[in-house]
Recover the amino acids of this structure.
């Protein structure tokens, strides 16, 4: 279970998180939704141990994020791989650090997403880089998978491939996936739980099906309504 | 098997790749100059001996530049996201970087040193070389000891500079503003402070008189103790800076 207890974080004069409280149960796909600058990326980076709270605390299975890096697979929005690497180099690097790496799954995903191991990171398209990052992240059997805007700037066909891959490889009940995005329509069908955040605070949270049934609206419309009410 | 060695090996490979352009520059320049000297003839060839020795400066300076370059690149290219997500401590991340810098420094200076000696031997007229004196120097165990002590002193100081570079950059990265200036300030402050501390405790200073006219006695009684204490002093500073860097990396550093 991932817990953020009263977590605040300020970058200069910008209050990125403002006393946020979150509980993300194990075994669910959770959508972390909100507009740009809402605090989604900061929340994920806190969980991944890349940012530290100014106040409050983050716990993953009752331990600090820095102590749980082995069970977290983090897919940041930015290109974080060395440009001189081939996909094979990147896989060899990651494989050395994580015992939960699944070689068969990696090979199968390469084929499924139509990538070759000898492709150089600096030479492939943005969509191919997104797919390569996805393969390197989900080839691990990590209990927690954090994805920050995995579909941002990706064409519609590649988006579909990514979502289909996630659906195909998700281990229900065992794995927790947190997807942060402001493009809700793309992942609407994927998520079990949703958390809407804005200005570093949780505006609405709950089970996706229940929220949709209660309000008779799509998740994108619910988010718009929640933010209109908040303003 | 997911051993620490395997992890360290991957980090070291990555770090060596980052310092490779500077290392190759030193090797290529040194080899090119030596080939020009060995294959050429005339006064112009002999004049190349000066720049061949000057390459030592490059072999010493470039690893220090690499230490700043590679760290900055990790942040600018966002690869720090990958590094900081890894389930290892800052000790391993920093240790592999330090080893890559030491490899760069040692390889570069050895290549330049061997090349410069060969070039010198080649251009000096053979009739001017006192072969018996050269033979006696080469078979003198004390000469190797002195060379080793002086080389270790140089290596200790470079280790100190590399650790200082890592430390000051990490200190600089704690702040989101004026990071470059804080890095520069910390780097200079550590050099100045360490010098002061060594002066205060009298380490690395020559004590005794030079009235003795036997070079070996001067080396044995005055130069060697000074170099040895100097080496130990800078190794201790390097260790402290390394430990400080690891602590800040593990507890304070953010992307």
């Amino acid at each position: 279970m991932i817990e953020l207890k009263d977590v605040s974080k300020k970058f200069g004069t910008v209050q990125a998180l403002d006393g946020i409280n979150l509980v993300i149960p194990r075994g669910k796909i959770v959508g972390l939704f909100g507009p740009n600058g809402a605090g989604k990326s900061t929340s994920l980076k806190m969980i991944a141990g890349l940012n530290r709270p100014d106040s409050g605390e983050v716990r993953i299975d009752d331990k600090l994020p820095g102590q749980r890096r082995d069970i977290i697979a983090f897919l940041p929005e930015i290109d974080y791989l060395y440009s001189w690497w081939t996909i094979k180099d990147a896989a060899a690097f990651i494989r050395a650090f994580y015992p939960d790496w699944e070689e068969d799954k990696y090979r199968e995903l390469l084929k499924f997403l139509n990538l070759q191991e000898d492709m150089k990171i600096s030479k492939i398209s943005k969509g191919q880089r997104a797919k390569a990052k996805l393969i390197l992240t989900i080839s691990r059997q990590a209990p927690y998978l954090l994805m920050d805007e995995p579909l941002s700037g990706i064409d519609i066909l590649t988006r579909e491939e990514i979502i289909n891959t996630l659906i195909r490889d998700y281990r229900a009940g065992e794995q927790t996936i947190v997807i942060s995005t402001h493009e809700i329509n793309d992942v609407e069908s994927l998520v079990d739980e949703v958390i809407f955040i804005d200005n570093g605070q949780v505006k609405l949270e709950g089970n996706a099906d229940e929220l949709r049934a209660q309000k008779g609206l799509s998740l994108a419309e619910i988010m718009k309504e929640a933010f209109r009410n908040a303003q | 098997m997911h051993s620490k060695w395997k992890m360290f090996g991957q980090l070291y490979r990555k770090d060596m790749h980052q310092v490779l352009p500077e290392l190759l520059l030193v090797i290529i320049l040194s080899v090119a100059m030596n080939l020009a000297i060995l294959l050429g003839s005339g006064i112009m060839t002999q004049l190349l001996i000066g720049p061949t020795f000057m390459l030592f400066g490059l072999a010493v300076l470039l690893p220090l530049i690499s230490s700043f370059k590679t760290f900055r690149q990790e942040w600018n290219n966002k690869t720090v996201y990958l590094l900081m997500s890894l389930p290892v401590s800052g000790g391993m991340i920093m240790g592999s970087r330090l080893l890559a810098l030491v490899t760069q420094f040692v390889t570069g200076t050895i290549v330049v040193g061997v090349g410069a000696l060969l070039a010198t031997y080649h251009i000096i007229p053979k009739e001017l070389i006192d072969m018996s004196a050269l033979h006696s120097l080469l078979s003198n165990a004390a000469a190797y000891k002195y060379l080793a002590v002086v080389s270790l002193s140089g290596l200790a100081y470079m280790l100190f500079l590399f650790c200082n570079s890592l430390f000051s950059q990490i200190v600089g990265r704690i702040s989101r503003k004026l990071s470059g200036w804080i890095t520069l300030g910390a780097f200079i402050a550590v050099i100045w402070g360490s010098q002061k501390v060594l002066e205060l405790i009298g380490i690395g200073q020559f004590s005794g008189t030079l009235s003795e006219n036997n070079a070996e006695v001067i080396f044995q009684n005055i130069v060697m103790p000074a170099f040895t204490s100097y080496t130990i002093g800078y190794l201790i500073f390097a260790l402290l800076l390394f430990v400080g860097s690891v602590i800040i990396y593990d507890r304070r550093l953010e992307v």
